[in-house]
Specification:
- The protein has 304 residues and is mainly beta.
- It has 2 domains: 99 residues, Udp-n-acetylmuramoylalanyl-d-glutamate--2,6- Diaminopimelate Ligase, Chain: A, domain 1; 189 residues, 3 Solenoid (UDP N-Acetylglucosamine Acyltransferase, domain 1).
- 11% of the residues lie in helices and 30% in strands.
- A 10-stranded mixed beta sheet has the order 10-13-16-21-24-27-30-33-35-36, with no helix packed on it. A 9-stranded parallel beta sheet has the order 8-11-14-17-22-25-28-31-34, with no helix packed on it.
- Strand 35 and strand 36 form a beta hairpin.
- The radius of gyration is 24 Å and the shape is globular.
Length: 304
Amino acid sequence: MTMIKLEYIINFIKDQIVQIYGYYKNIFIEGIAGMENSNASLLDWIHQNIENPQEKAEKSNSKVIITSKDVFFSKTMESAGKILIQVDNPYLTIAKIGNEFFVKKETPIISQTAIINPGASIGKDVYIGAFTVLGSCKIGDNSIIQENVIIRDDVIIGCNVIIKSGAIIGNPGFGFIKDTDGKLIKFPQLGSVIIQDNVEIGSNTCIDRGAFSNTIIGSNTKINNLCHIAHNVVIGNTTIITAQVNISGSTIIGNNVWIAPNSTLIGHQKIGDDVLIGAGSVVLSDIPSNEVWVGNPAKFLKKR
């Protein structure tokens, strides 16, 4: 059981704190409260957009509660000896606390069962899981490559990247052309895959290498499980691609885009910055920046 002194947590989030109420010395925190919380030693938090935040805070079983400044330190809380920590964004603050103090960190290690090409370049403090196969690729510092991942030759992976089990990075893209006799001829796939810093790639996701140019995933982009990213796709920074999204070849996606589950982009499209694509959408055309598109076929819904 992990017990963290509350003073350490407060010092960690000091730049985000608006006000602290109650005596917080020599208090220890066991973990973070979920929806059902009956443990006083868990750190509770009230989402800034939830209904009746004051009531939720009043009824919390936790001794320590993180809230927005809309929740006040009532007589009820004071008499119960509670500690109220007001911050600007409780959702963001609790995420940072959880990652810093309670998420188990992978110990940098290279599994003895991993198959690694002698030409592979592996940075510092990298985790390589069991039965992972690495070609002549490059992996940056502090990255985590989980079990049963395949990374082909010439793939370049930045620092602080997480690639989850079953992902395949850098296989040849799917492209064919008919010969004069109707026989399908494989179109050469000579490019690579470049994954920039702080990217996360989910389990069983496939990212294909480019044909003559590279497939590129921008920094801080997060891709969920069971996605397909085809050849020559370029994805910008801080974009969210949720589960079971299919992005066909030569699609260009901007920064800060959100693509909801089960969406399909048919290829050779340009998606602008700050776009939201709704669940199950089939995108047949370009989408300008700052717009929300939904449906099959996807159509403009509103400005974002």
